[in-house]
Write a structure and sequence with these properties.
The chain is mainly alpha-helical. The chain is about 80% helix and about 0% strand. The protein starts with a helix and ends with a helix.
């Protein structure tokens, strides 16, 4: 991809943020979206989320910074993003969705930008507000989260060519699918842990007997 191509992708990204319905439509129908920008938004949100927990003012944050594990939280954000996309893809495949898995990844990644920007701004504002002015911090987080939800709803609606009602049903089923995926993942992890413990026990028993 040349420099002009990269510039066009970024221009369309900001156009999608300001005009979600139009921007998401062209992502699906003219390949104007960028997976790399979507992944970058997820990565930046993960970093900003952890930095908010680490460096926000004590007025709005009662978390001990030393307990925050940035790599683990970043991995958690990325994993949740992937589970969301897989869950939505699995549901929409059964509900005649027109969007590809790539389109879902882009739609969800782009939608994180408002929440990322609002969280970064709220972190800075937290050091400027007095003890009775926490509402400004909460308002910023709330506005960013609300706009992210709006972008996600519009994105799913546009890439799958759904009505608003069908989109809401799809998102509800997506949450159900995510819970099932997480449950199955925990079962697999628990099974692997038990198998590992079993063979480790046998190995240790053989070591002590030899």
């Amino acid at each position: 991809m040349n420099r002009m191509g990269i510039k066009d992708k970024w221009q369309h990204f900001f156009h999608t943020v300001s005009h979600p319905a139009d921007g998401y439509y062209w992502i699906r129908h003219q390949e104007k979206g960028s997976l790399w920008i979507a992944f970058l938004m997820v990565l930046l949100y993960g970093i900003v989320f952890s930095m908010n927990r680490i460096s926000s003012s004590f007025i709005v944050n009662d978390i001990e910074p030393r307990t925050v594990n940035l790599p683990a939280e970043l991995a958690g954000v990325i994993l949740l993003y992937l589970i969301l996309c897989v869950g939505n893809w699995s549901v929409t495949c059964l509900m005649d969705g027109e969007g590809r898995f790539k389109d879902i990844l882009i739609a969800a990644g782009y939608a994180l930008f408002p929440m990322m920007a609002a969280t970064a701004a709220a972190t800075a504002v937290s050091h400027l507000v007095a003890e009775n002015e926490e509402a400004f911090y909460t308002l910023l987080i709330g506005l960013g989260t609300a706009y992210t939800v709006i972008m996600l709803v519009i994105g799913i609606m546009q890439v799958h060519n759904y009505t608003f009602g069908k989109t809401l049903i799809t998102l509800f089923l997506t949450v159900v699918a995510m819970l099932i995926i997480i449950f199955l993942g925990l079962l697999v992890i628990n099974f692997i842990t038990q198998v590992y413990s079993f063979f480790r026990g046998i190995y240790m028993e053989l070591i002590f007997r030899v």
